[in-house]
User: What shape does this take?
Amino acid sequence: MQALIVYAHPNPRSFNAAILKTVQEELVNKGINYRVRDLYARRFNPLLTAEEMEKIDAGHIPPDIAAEQRLITEADLLIFISPIWWSSFTTMMHGYISRVFSKGFAYGTAEAGYTMGCLGGKRLLALTTCGVTNENGENTEYFTELSDIIRHHIFGFVGMEVIHKNFIAVNFVSRDEREKMLEEIRSTIRQEI
Ligand SMILES: Cc1cc2nc3c(=O)[nH]c(=O)nc-3n(C[C@H](O)[C@H](O)[C@H](O)COP(=O)(O)O)c2cc1C
Assistant: This one.
């Protein structure tokens, strides 16, 4: 199995950085080969411009996008790691998805006019973190909506089989609670991947 980790947090001291480290350790334990795309560290260009949209529509994929698409093609398992910012992935992660999941690569239009995913057969583990709390269940619907978009409308849309784990209130919980979250990630990789 070949895995590709796509990681989008600017701060190497963040909880998301600890998640990245945990995922890497557990993949090594399982003997799974992996590559990491650390989008901020690589200064990935997240801007999909008008010029680029026209080129892609005409079938000309820019070299930096073609390189990312090759890595996705070679992977059986994708692991996307990002905090939730303004109720979705970081802008960097969204820019990556907008540019790399291009028409013809990630999805296509069937003759009947509806769109269909082109990345079937790949598994996707999405790991996200939220600041928002849910002590009295007041944000249950918010978390369900976030997860629906990630599972169905982004990765499901391109045909992937998706597992999404969202960790909430990470800014407010204790060190022990965070360690439990990392343990949940370890066991997800051990048991569900
Ligand atoms: C620009 C910005 C926007 C944010 N928007 C949200 C949000 O919409 N929902 C939420 O639950 N948390 C939000 N947060 C809180 C982050 O999700 C939280 O700080 C992060 O998950 C903590 O993980 P980290 O230590 O790896 O950064 C936001 C934080 C920032 C910096």
